[in-house]
Amino acid sequence: MTLVPIDDPSDPRLDPYRAVRERDLVGRAGLFVAEGEVVLRMLAASRRFAAVSALIVDKRRDKLADLLAALDPDVPVYLVPQAVIDTVAGFEIHRGILALGRRPEPVPADALLAGLPARALVVAAVGIANHDNMGGIFRNAAAFGAAAVLLDPTSCDPLYRKAIRVSVGGVLAMPFARLAAEDDLPDLLARHGFTAFALSPQGSTRLADLARPPRAAVILGAEGPGLPAALLARTHTVRIPMAAGFDSLNVATTSGIVLHRLAEADGLPVS
Amino acid sequence: MTLVPIDDPSDPRLDPYRAVRERDLVGRAGLFVAEGEVVLRMLAASRRFAAVSALIVDKRRDKLADLLAALDPDVPVYLVPQAVIDTVAGFEIHRGILALGRRPEPVPADALLAGLPARALVVAAVGIANHDNMGGIFRNAAAFGAAAVLLDPTSCDPLYRKAIRVSVGGVLAMPFARLAAEDDLPDLLARHGFTAFALSPQGSTRLADLARPPRAAVILGAEGPGLPAALLARTHTVRIPMAAGFDSLNVATTSGIVLHRLAEADGLPVS
């Protein structure tokens, strides 16, 4: 491993970590920011994502020895005092662990679906603009063994620092693809033999009554606006019955309820 | 309705709203802060909670006329410019709506359970310290028709501003009681005929295989530590099967999955 102690917060090698909170919203050319031990472990183990560097509070070095050893030996690990990581990042990094990862080449949705097994569950996010919800959806997709996540052009970036953190690394574990503007989601799913289930409070089938086809896609829209009527008209619509007068579920929670129901039939191993 | 225009941010009538973010963490004697239109509507409609005053950006007054009319006519509604509400609260109040509510006398858990119907679902939170998770649990409890929420002595306050907001008002809709230090949760539930289901990754029964007794209690612990072993030993333990290698669910999402499963049998009306 390549350990590089740095004491000067103005050291240019720390530039990619400056003002992390503001900059990761506008994106860095080809990079993303990972935060915390669990996420860095998943980055180190990933085949799709490569770590570019890591920034660690020096007093955490010994406890993280196995994690640092799991990184490619050429990846520089900058070791700094707590005050330096806070100054550079622009806010308190309680866990003392940041890393930069490289974004892989985007995979076309068509190619991603074509490569999935005959029995597979995918999630499609339509208009999901909130990073917490995006992270929660990826976390549930990973927990219930989904094979991939599709994102429409208006959904937010799952490789945003907070989305990765909320997903507990699920974003790094779960293959995903963003649809191009000209892609048509129902056509795309049908072409690959996926039955499209669109969640809506007015859905025609109760979730509990749903039969699980071998290839199933769960389509989720944003709280409030929900899914476009034109999309609902071309899919199997599914509802989750709720108490009269309190028809309100968070979209990440909805993903958990639906994926649990559809994954049951797969006899997921208890981990 | 009692409309009181105020232009001076130092007006003493606005004192209870000062530095809301800091102060609602330490609590105000007998009061809580509600935020946003949906939550204020639930406060106005509540029989358990009374509004003490409201603080509204003046330009939103006309759009909120029906809501303001629903408040007790004696409750003062302070109308202020946007800059005044932001200055007083100490951060940007985008929605332009705050209110103070009065905390009701606490109900003993024993009395709350005794008053529930013969068929009822309750949620018990043990060591839930995160306000987002607390809000999410209440939101799901309300959505799936739970009758009450119990809180152990170490769980956080659901009447914290952010927990109420995340619950979409569920905290104001759902009866709840906090256990005293000397209360024993399994004893309490057994005394009132509730079967206690404790969620744990090592639970002995799969959620999908659970039979729904008339009175059921779902016990949830914090992510990470989970529920105490002594509690698990005295309850029916339940697991949600997950993918190998990614055994990770958010506790609010867990509450949604379990409550949906147990409420199915109740044939909840689709709202």
TrEMBL record, chains A, B:
Residues 121-260 form the tRNA/rRNA methyltransferase SpoU type domain. GO terms for molecular function: RNA binding; RNA methyltransferase activity. One of its GO terms (biological process) is methylation. CDD domains: SpoU-like_rRNA-MTase (cd18095). Keywords: Methyltransferase, Transferase. The keyword Disulfide bond does not apply. This is tRNA G18 (Ribose-2'-O)-methylase SpoU.
